[in-house]
Every structure is written in C-alpha cells, then in structure tokens.
Amino acid sequence: MDAPFLTTSLAVLTTLSLLALPLSAAAHDFLPLKSSLVVEEYETNILQSSDGTFSSGFYNIYTNAFTFSIWYSNSVDKAIVWSANRGRPVHSRRSAITLRKDGTMVLTDYDGTVVWQTDGKFPNVQYIQLLNTGNLVLKNSSGNVVWQSFDSPTDTLLPTQRIPATTKS
C-alpha cells in the first residue's frame, strides 16, 4: 500500500469516527424550543458560550443536590456567576430545565414540582442561548432578547452586566 492512499484512508476514517459521536456529548450555546437539559447528564449535557468562557447546566452542589447555574468554564472550581435556584436545589434524578412551547424556561424537580421559571410567557421564543458575556437569554424568532439572566442578578456581577432599576428573581 502506498503512503498517500494510507494517509487519505486514515483521514477519512478519523472524520467518520468523529461524525459518529453522539450529538448530546457536544456542547452548544443554545437550546431550542421544546427541549430540555436533564440532571442525569449534568457532566455532558450543558450549554457553552461560543467562545468557551462560560458554561451553563446542572451544577452539583452536594450529594444528590443540583442548581441550574452559569459558571466560568475553565476555572478550577467552576466559579458560579448565576444560579436560578440557589436557595432550593433539585434532586439528582428526573430534574430538568425545559424551554416550553409557550416560551417559558422552567426548572422542575424529580416530582414535577416547578422550582423556578422565567417571569412571563413569550410565545415567539425560539431558543435559549448562553452568550459570551455569561448572559443566558431567551430569543424570539427575530433574534431579539425577551428575557435575560442579567436582569435577575445573584451575588456576582459580570463585566458587561448592568444593575437594572428593578430586579427580578
């Protein structure tokens, strides 16, 4: 076998192998309408900003307890910058964050109890996106932000985050 043929064959096999990887293992910066992130896959089922600075998903705070949070992706201790349910963690089984068809983002616990949700319904919402600023947003069909985590600050302010006149939780 000649070297060019072998090199080409290896390149094709490598490419096909990478394409065969499960899509759920890849981090994306968005979650489409009627989709969920589930707690059981907290290590791989995350959102990541397109530049890789921030990640969002289920964060394990202690045994069987999770928050839905945003953190610095490359910090050793995963420094949290925002949490939806800081005072009320969810269980390690059957909990999910879902973008419902009515445009609300809802965090449910193992028994279906709503632990946290965005304020209001946004019928034209198409997806959740984690921006490079660390802001988690809901965007409508025109690409406009209709809800953002920056309007519900916790104990950390990020460089481009402004403190709103009234805050929401």
UniProtKB/TrEMBL annotation:
<keyword id="KW-0812">Transmembrane</keyword>
<dbReference type="GO" id="GO:0051707">
    <property type="term" value="P:response to other organism"/>
</dbReference>
<keyword id="KW-0472">Membrane</keyword>
<dbReference type="InterPro" id="IPR001480">
    <property type="entry name" value="Bulb-type_lectin_dom"/>
</dbReference>
<feature type="signal peptide">
    <location>
        <begin position="1"/>
        <end position="27"/>
    </location>
</feature>
<dbReference type="InterPro" id="IPR036426">
    <property type="entry name" value="Bulb-type_lectin_dom_sf"/>
</dbReference>
<keyword id="KW-1133">Transmembrane helix</keyword>
<dbReference type="Pfam" id="PF01453">
    <property type="entry name" value="B_lectin"/>
</dbReference>
<dbReference type="GO" id="GO:0004674">
    <property type="term" value="F:protein serine/threonine kinase activity"/>
</dbReference>
<keyword id="KW-0675">Receptor</keyword>
<protein>
    <recommendedName>
        <fullName>non-specific serine/threonine protein kinase</fullName>
        <ecNumber>2.7.11.1</ecNumber>
    </recommendedName>
</protein>
<feature type="domain" description="Bulb-type lectin">
    <location>
        <begin position="22"/>
        <end position="151"/>
    </location>
</feature>
<keyword id="KW-0732">Signal</keyword>
<dbReference type="GO" id="GO:0016020">
    <property type="term" value="C:membrane"/>
</dbReference>
